[in-house]
Amino acid sequence: MFNVETIRKDFPILQRKVNGKPLVYFDNAATSQTPQQVIDAIVEYYSYYNANIHRGVHTLSQEATDKYEQARLKIQKHFNAKASHEIIMTSGTTHGINLVANGFASLLEKGDEIIVSALEHHSNIVPWQMLCERSGAILKVIPMNDEGALVMSAYADLLSEKTKLVFVNHISNALGTINPIEEIIQQAHAVGAAVLIDGAQACPHVKPDVQALDVDFYVASAHKMCGPTGVGMLYGKEEWLKKLPPYQGGGEMIAEVTFEKTTYADLPHKFEAGTPNICGGIAFGAAIDYMNAIGFDKIATYEHELLDYATAQLLNIPGLKIYGTSKQKTSVISFNLAGIHPYDVGTLLDKMGIAVRTGHHCAQPIMDYFKIPGTIRASFAFYNTRDEIDALVTAVQKAQLMLS
Ligand SMILES: *Cc1c(COP(=O)(O)O)cnc(C)c1O
């Protein structure tokens, strides 16, 4: 059974007050909160077996290596990758995207085309622009419609034998839209293009199966799924990871690995130069265990109830407009109040203990589409409640009164 009150006890931070009010944390799309089970994994690492991995013969180093590699296996299993060496530990989604973009620089030719979507996070736009500058490739954009959904017929028109790469997020962080990635992947493969899916916003809500999706690359960040910041994962099909050159081939790493051992080309280490975020990787594994113990089906069902409830309640407020109204969406609501700047609303909500995000949410092209400076974004997690949504609705009404 899914019991939100029991779940909330796992999150120490949910007990705290902000500005004298109980914290209502609705900024989950920026980063999720951390359960005690994950905090314990972090404390245990630094208290009992902190050591560098893959190098030492001593007990602590072996324990740390075992735990770190166990975390990789948990990630492999969670995403259903065929092999554990197809999981590259990264510092997060941004790192994973840059790793792939950098690798493709040597595979692209002038005039090749890369397709991104209008719904992308800046971290999924800028690396491709940089790649195009370096390689002479051309960037094409799948447009969106008024609901905040991608125009799939336009995507079909963009695809051709010139298309080498397609990059789309699984779920939009700014609007919550769930993109039809199965279709996107199939159509890209039909013209021989590779696909990278940015799963940063999807992984807190769904459990992707990279083999079923037949995706070439999939990236995620631990901190959006109950893990710590500064760690994430890149899944890549083995054939692709073998083709891509190392990302951080620093002198040290090459000297050590190439001349002393012959393990240079081995996956996943080829892409893991330097001491990684060992503790973070282990805690990422703990976060995956935690979320799976609750169950992604239950999480999705519950969050959908929260989304429907909050959407209905917020739309009762006169002058409130929601951006991103696709039927396929997760528990993110981006909205504005007529005639009021989102930042002012966000500031007043914080005074009432409610954490939301205001601004362009690293997705300026989306804001440009709607011709707005930004939105107020409330994003819900499985540990949020209807009572908290009621508090948000009351607070938004108060803010509206004060600001109009
Ligand atoms: C958060 C987010 C990112 C960036 O993740 P980092 O952890 O900052 O690297 C990229 N894409 C989407 C859709 C996101 O929500």
How would you describe what is shown here?
The mean pLDDT is 94. This protein folds into two domains: 137 residues, Aspartate Aminotransferase, domain 1 (Alpha-Beta Complex); 254 residues, Type I PLP-dependent aspartate aminotransferase-like (Major domain) (Aspartate Aminotransferase, domain 2), CATH 3.40.640. It contains 15 helices and 15 strands. Helices cover 42% and strands 15% of the residues. The protein is of the alpha/beta class and 404 residues long. Pyridoxal-5'-phosphate (PLP) binds next to α4.
**Class of secondary structure makeup:** alpha/beta
Helix content: 40-55%
**Strands in their spatial order, largest beta sheet:** 4-10-9-8-7-5-6
Secondary-structure element series: HEEEHHEHEHEHEHEHEEHHHHEEHEEHEH
Function: Catalyzes the removal of elemental sulfur and selenium atoms from L-cysteine, L-cystine, L-selenocysteine, and L-selenocystine to produce L-alanine.
Domain Aminotransferase class V: 24-392
InterPro entries: Aminotrans_V_dom, Aminotrans_V_PyrdxlP_BS, Cys_dSase_SufS, Cysteine_dSase, PyrdxlP-dep_Trfase, PyrdxlP-dep_Trfase_major, PyrdxlP-dep_Trfase_small
Organism: Gelidibacter salicanalis
In short:
This protein is an alpha/beta fold and 404 residues long. It has helices at 4-8, 36-49, 59-79, 93-104, 126-135, 152-158, 181-190, 210-213, 238-243, 251-260, 278-294, 296-315, 342-351, 364-370, 386-403, and strands at 17-18, 21-22, 24-25, 87-90, 113-117, 138-142, 163-169, 194-198, 217-221, 232-236, 320-323, 332-337, 354-355, 357-359, 375-379.
